[in-house]
Amino acid sequence: MQLTKIQRDESRFNEIVRGRIRKDLRKYVTHGEMMGRKGRDLVSIPLPQLDVPHFHYGDNGSGGVGQGDGEIGQPVGKGDSDSGTGSAGSDPGAHVLEVEVTLEELAAMLGDELELPRIQPKGQATIAEEKTRYDSIRRTGPESLRHFKRTYVQALRRQIATGSYDVIKPKVVPISEDRRYRSWTSVPLPQANAVIVYMMDVSGSMTDEQKEIVRTESFWIDTWLQSQYDGLERRYIIHDAAAREVDEHTFYHTRESGGTRISSAYNVAANLVRESFPVSEWNIYFFQFSDGDNWGEDNEQSLRILREHLLPSCNLFCYGQVESPYGSGEFLRCLDEAFGDDEERLILSEIRDRDAIYDSIRRFLGTGK
Q: Is the pTM of this model over 0.90?
């Protein structure tokens, strides 16, 4: 179908908008402003300094082109030379355009810009649901599924065949034998299921700024993995010296004052997978965020649980160490010494500030696992 001029203009404008988003993607990744504008399937993104075409109208009755008083070279228009002056609040300012982008488009942009490989799900896909397809017609069924066109065509055929159809006064009256109904078949849909288990230290050394960094990076991790899997679950675990599973809001807004035992979070994660997410049916991702503080005697226990229970069950285990003025950063060095040569399953990343989020995402998701 040939597009109209306005449809072509709209398509071109959308290309410009998305080109601007791609150009500034690093800025959007490192700042969490769009997350407050996230809907179910759409994200509203502010685009400053984008010139939107619009019309300017003159006053009615002011004359046609070239009419009226004036000399050659004289500026046309009513504006004063001091257009930047004026009393407070009396002049319009620059506008920011907000455009809606689907999460699918956003994931595609992220994948292109970071050159992320497509994920090949492990194991067999599971049958998660059945889809109903209306693909045939039958003589019986509920009135809500009556096929009106087929019913009247059948009635017309019957009347023509019996000679009761009057071409002078055409009238088609279906009877019960003429009625036709839509029929369906149920088609099983295989789904590759995945679960993300987020773990975060919420002890006193993790500040609100560190948690906002975690929240921003998690948004983009969610966006990418959701584009790779039909079914995606998320689970959240917080810990200080003890750990528990919580909802998303609690995960990002809890702050404790106790010590830190990372093994407590690892134990909760291992039990969660064992009870709810069989390894043969689920693609499992662990993302842990911490400032690197851990009770010294707990390191050995944490490494053992990681080695024996978490790494064997997951597609990928990612540890992001968010730099904090209060954290020692010791745990990243501990992991590097124990698993430094196992980058197939364990990925380490230092997130010093918001600007490091972009490269951290590339490091975590660039394996294609």
A: no
